[in-house]
Structures are given as structure tokens and as C-alpha cells.
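Predict structure. Input: LPS export ABC transporter permease LptG, 381 residues.
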Amino acid sequence: MGNRIMTRLDRYLLRETLPVFAFGLALYVGLGLLSNVLARSAYVGQMPLGGMLAWLGLQVPAILSQTLPVAVLFAVLLGYGRLARENELLVMQAGGISPRRTARWLLVGGVLLAALSFCLNEWVIPWSTKQTVLTWWRSFDGNGGVFRLVGQDLPVGKLRLFFGGYDAAKNELTRVRVQQWEDRRLTVYFAERGRLEGTALRLQGVKGFMLDMDRLPPPEFTDLEQVEAFFQDYVRAQNLAQSLTIRLSLSQDDLVSRFSNYSSTALDSSQPPSHWWRQARDPAATVKEKVEARANLHAALAQAFAPLVLLWLALPVAVKRASSPGVALGLALALTVAYYVLFGLGGVLAQTSVWAPEIAMWGANVLAVAGGWALGRGVYR
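Output follows.
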């Protein structure tokens, strides 16, 4: 009989919080989409309806991951806070049911939401982020926004790619330069035209040059003829065939999604946590690349745990501080702003190497857990 009563109690508690959670999640996702529309309002009106709907839909996974913690705060402070205000939790305690027991399924839900957030970051958000950028540019340019890359020096694996112009009618790059360092040797290719086909860069009208730095430093020169003779000796020009194909590590879509300046943030959500894990342990990566990888890895992990962490903080706040619906809403807003300000500050500090990325990115979560524990007398202990 006792188990049956407890099951009914669990269902009752979930009925109090789940509808509020669903409403809060829909509200915050809608606000996130609206803010993105307003930020690009001058261009959204020029998009075809189908393209605009696809663009909005592709943003939902990333916004969902960011709003799950806020919806948890909203649900707990309003739903669970109402039980505390109307002394229902007190009645349960009088019946021998502790607040920690009543929050059991909420904490289980927090663990599930943390797992969902991690799965979104690993398998869904990198793809949806890339498709969001491509859908946006394809709404204005049938070739997918390659024109946005003109004039940029693009790092593509060990290569650097530059093109000074773009022929949209032919989907061709013009005035192309590709360069690569191998130890102390620099190889540069200049081409009149180029075309990106998957990960293949097909160049036309190519000339190649190789600069061997082991021949430096140059000797002392007394006239210009000596300079010309010396440099002709160690700079070798190769007049290649009319065409050359170079295999890149990124496709055209990858280049557009990564370098088109669609948005600028301190942290990169276009790659899954597993990518940053591998890069942080890559012996060939530079110190800067490893710091960036650690910052992005721990940002993804900390964000995944945010629903559980803020649930942990919200439960004692709801029991002890949410004296009215208005106060509960105010607390939800204040805690949300405080958490994301600290999280954003951590992202900036992680990239500048002022603090270790692990400390910077987990700081907001650690403070939230500590705050929940400090306020949790009578709830957790």
C-alpha cells in the first residue's frame, strides 16, 4: 500500500512540474527564434517561405540545448514552489516523506535532460548548425554562400587557401592561391581559376613555386643582379599542366559554414565534443589549438550538465524563497541571468588563457552546486 501511495505522489509531483516545464521550454525556444529573426530582420523578409521555415527549424536543436536549463528553473520554481507555498510539502514531511524523496523523480529527470543535452551536442547540433548557415546563404545565393569567402585567408588543414574573386555564374573561384609549409619548405600554387567539387579543388592555369628556407640567410649583396641571381637559384618555379587537383580536408559546405561569418561567438558549436577531445590530445596540434579544444570541450560538457546543476540549485530556492508566483518568476530570471553571465565570462577567460579552460568553463556549474548545497539544509541534508 505504501508503495502505491508513493507512486501516486510521484505522479502528482510530476503533474505539477511537467506542464510548466513544457510551457517554459516552448516559450524560451520561441523567444530564441524570435531574437534570431530580429537580428536579421533586414534580410529575413527576402527569404522564400520554405527557406525561412527550414532555417528556423534547423536552429531549434541549438536553442533547445541552451534553454533546457532555463525551462528547468522555470518549472521547479513555479511548480515545486507552489507546493511549498501552500504547505503541501510540510504535510508530506509530517507524513514521513522528506523533501529529498519528493524530488527524486525531478532529479532523475535532470539526469535524463543532461544526457539529452550531451547527445544533442555530440550528434545533432554540429549538423544542424552547419545546415542553418548553408540554408541561410542558399536563400540568397544558389551556390551556397561561397562569395562570403572572397578575400579571406582560409586555414584548411595544413594548407591555406585564398581567392580574390568569385564568378557566381560559373561557380568558379578566381585569382586562387594555395600554400603549404613542410618543415622549412614553402610551396605555393597560383591559379587563374578554381572550382570546389566536394573536397577536391580543381585549379586551371596553374603555376607553382617552391621556397627552400634551408638556403637562407642570404649572403651580402652589392648590386641588384646578384640578388636576382641568388633568388633564382633557390626559388624554383614549376610551370605545371593546365589543370591541377588538390584534395582538401574540408568540403565547400564545410568552408562556408565555418568561415562565412554567419555569426561570431567565443566558443565553437560546429564540432562535437569528441572532435575537441581528439584535438586536445593531438600531439601535432599547437598550444593555441589545444587550449581552444579544451575550452570548447569543457564548454559542451558544462552546458550538458546545466539542467541537472540548475535543478539542484532550484529545489532549495523553491522551497525556501519562492514565496509567491511573482517572486518565483523573478528568481528564475535572476538565476538564469547570473548563470549565463558567469558561463559567458568563463568562455572569454578560457580563450584568453587567463584561467585554465577547465576552471573557467566549469566555474558557473561549481558555484550553482555550491549554492544549492548551502541552501539545501532540510532538502538534501
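The chain has a mean pLDDT of 89.
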